[in-house]
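Priority: medium. Attachment 1 of 2:
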């Protein structure tokens, strides 16, 4: 009994293998192949315009008795201004 089950399984497996190896449906007679080639891209770069800014002169209103003292301090330059 075991031999007949084994033989039946082997024959069934061979039948499945034969069915799996059958060629697929035929391809259509006409085929179209599209080949895309990249087109060159030209990129023009323009340098930004050069802008030279000239600062406006500061407006200084000095009154009698005003003073400004500039000195080197521990943390950098110190500025002391006295306005009267």
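Attachment 2 of 2:
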């Amino acid at each position: 009994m075991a031999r007949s089950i084994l033989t039946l399984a082997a024959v069934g497996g061979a039948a499945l293998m034969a069915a799996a190896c059958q060629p697929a449906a035929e391809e259509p007679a006409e085929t179209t192949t599209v080949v895309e080639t990249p087109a060159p891209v030209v990129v023009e770069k323009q340098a930004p315009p050069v802008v030279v800014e000239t600062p406006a002169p500061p407006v200084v209103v000095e009154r009698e008795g005003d003073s400004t003292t500039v000195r080197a301090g521990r943390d950098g330059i110190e500025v002391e201004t006295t306005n009267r």
